[in-house]
């Protein structure tokens, strides 16, 4: 199976052909995927070099002219390093862009901590008005990229699309807004975000719980969570492929008027300095199916067998 990032350049290249508003801005990373497209659209495929602050600033400048910029590099260089430009050049000027990241929380362990960004979504959460897509499969990534760029997108839409090498076995039909109900139960609600759905389904096999699948986490689908808790009870476990607890405030807000408990699972704050493999990081952070089952049942308590 190809990866989400494998889909990125072909999808955006087609969007460049289809829509004269679209431009792509790169900082060396990913440039090889746009060589042919750059010949067709030399004024709309821009490589600023290893200058991440300029990367975001150039995207904002394009947005000010009415263009729809797609800005791409590793997550740590797209959200963390140029955060001031994300805050000011985009947010303060009321213009938008589609920020598309790669490497996610720990997709390239050999790159070291400089290439890891488990706090990216939490950091964007400090800003107003961002839509955040976290696809769990290359097919979903393609759908969400198209949804983010247009034709519905306008220059004020600020969208973050978080690509990962981790993926579920099959893609689902996503719409860029709502959570999907994958399994129904009565003993609690587990929200699986993006590429962690398969692990969550494995962890909850045989348990009488509702599983919601989220590929768009901002705005947070409060209505879907409330509907799920009406049947399954108001104990909620969030399983996210980035910093643990990133969405606990959103879940608490959604259920503010009813008694509830929320457990946030995800990437821990402690830096793992023996970089190892992606699978070893997943296990170390307790995000494999076996560890998740232990943590979910420990929080929700015994649940009757799912029929």
TrEMBL record:
It holds the Pfam family Transket_pyr. Gene3D superfamilies: 3.40.50.920, 3.40.50.970. Residues 2-171 form the Transketolase-like pyrimidine-binding domain. One of its GO terms (molecular function) is magnesium ion binding. InterPro entries: PDH/Transketolase (IPR051157), THDP-binding (IPR029061), Transketo_C/PFOR_II (IPR009014), Transketolase-like_Pyr-bd (IPR005475). It comes from the Bacteria. SUPFAM superfamilies: Thiamin diphosphate-binding fold (THDP-binding), TK C-terminal domain-like. This is Transketolase. It comes from Streptomyces acidicola.
């Amino acid at each position: 199976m190809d990866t989400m990032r494998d889909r990125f350049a072909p999808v955006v290249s087609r969007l460049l052909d289809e829509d004269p508003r679209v431009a792509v801005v790169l900082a060396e990373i990913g440039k090889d995927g746009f060589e042919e497209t750059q010949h067709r659209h030399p004024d709309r495929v821009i490589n600023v070099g290893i200058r991440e602050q300029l990367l975001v600033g150039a995207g904002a400048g394009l947005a000010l002219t009415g263009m729809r910029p797609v800005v791409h590099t590793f997550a740590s260089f797209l959200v963390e390093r140029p955060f001031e430009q994300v805050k000011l050049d985009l947010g303060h000027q009321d213009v938008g862009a589609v920020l598309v990241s790669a490497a996610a929380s720990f997709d390239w362990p050999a790159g070291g901590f400089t290439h890891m960004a488990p706090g990216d979504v939490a950091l964007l959460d400090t800003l107003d008005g961002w839509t955040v897509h976290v696809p769990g499969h290359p097919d979903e990534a393609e759908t969400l990229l198209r949804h983010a760029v247009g034709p519905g997108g306008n220059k004020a839409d600020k969208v973050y699309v978080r690509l990962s090498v981790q993926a579920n076995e099959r893609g689902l039909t996503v719409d860029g807004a709502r959570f999907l109900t994958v399994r129904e139960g009565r003993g609690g609600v587990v929200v699986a975000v993006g590429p962690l759905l398969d692990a969550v389904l494995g962890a909850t096999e045989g348990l009488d719980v509702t599983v919601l699948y989220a590929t768009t986490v901002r705005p947070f689908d409060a209505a879907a969570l409330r509907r799920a808790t009406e049947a399954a009870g108001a104990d909620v476990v969030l399983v996210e492929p980035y910093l643990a607890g990133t969405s606990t405030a959103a879940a608490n807000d959604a259920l503010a008027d009813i008694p509830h408990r929320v457990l946030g699972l995800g990437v821990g704050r402690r830096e793992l300095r023996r970089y190892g493999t992606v699978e070893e990081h997943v296990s170390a952070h307790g995000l494999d199916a076996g560890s998740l089952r232990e943590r979910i049942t420990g929080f929700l308590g015994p649940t009757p067998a799912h029929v």
